[in-house]
């Protein structure tokens, strides 16, 4: 593994787990107080969406680990799609133009492009 790729692999990115989403009017939000409950339009047994860079990369079910929650992964995108999700805009494939996206690039080429700000 090239040194650039090793450097890229150490970068930390925020993971977001989407429990549910809903649209609410501002008046309702203004009435929130500690203890308010917001009902989400999702069944408690449905899978949760896992996002990086606001793009879905996996899904899974909630599990309790001692006093913490965790996610047991049930589906994940392929490695290329997960790398694309970390890029800007519409993903690396959309931004790479003639290069054909990350699918035709080696891991070291992806690392070079990320370090150059192209992904």
Provide structural commentary.
This protein is α+β, with helices and mostly antiparallel strands and 119 residues long. The protein contains 5 helices and 4 strands, in the order H-E-H-E-E-E-H-H-H. It has helices at 3-9, 26-30, 79-85, 92-95, 107-115; strands at residues 15-18, 48-52, 55-65, 68-76. The protein has a 4-stranded antiparallel beta sheet. Helix 1 (3-9) crosses helix 5 (107-115). The two termini are 19 Å apart.
Strand content: 15-25%
The number of distinct helices, counting runs of at least 4 residues, comes to: 5
Anisotropy-based shape: elongated
What is the H-and-E element order? Answer: HEHEEEHHH
Distance between the termini: 19 Å
- Give the integer mean of the pLDDT values: 79
CATH architecture: Roll
Relevant CATH superfamily: SpoA-like
Largest sheet: 4 strands, antiparallel
CATH topology: Surface presentation of antigens (SPOA)
Rg calc? 19 Å
Classified by CATH, the class is: Mainly Beta
* Number of DSSP-assigned strands: 4
Number of domains: 1
Pick out the low-confidence regions. Answer: 89-100
Helical proportion? Answer: 25-40%
Tell me the strand order in the biggest sheet. 1-2-3-4
Structural class by secondary-structure content = alpha+beta
């Amino acid at each position: 593994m090239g040194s650039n790729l090793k450097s890229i692999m150490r970068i930390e990115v925020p993971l977001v787990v989407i429990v549910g989403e809903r649209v609410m009017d501002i008046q309702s939000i203004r009435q929130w107080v500690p203890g308010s409950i917001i009902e989400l339009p999702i069944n408690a047994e449905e899978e949760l969406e896992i996002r990086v860079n606001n793009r879905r990369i996996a899904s899974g079910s909630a599990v309790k680990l001692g006093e913490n929650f965790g996610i047991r992964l049930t589906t994940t995108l392929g490695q290329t799609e997960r790398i694309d999700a970390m890029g800007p805009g519409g993903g690396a494939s959309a931004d790479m133009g003639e290069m054909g996206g990350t699918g035709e690039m080696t891991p070291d080429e992806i690392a070079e492009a990320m370090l150059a700000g192209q992904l």
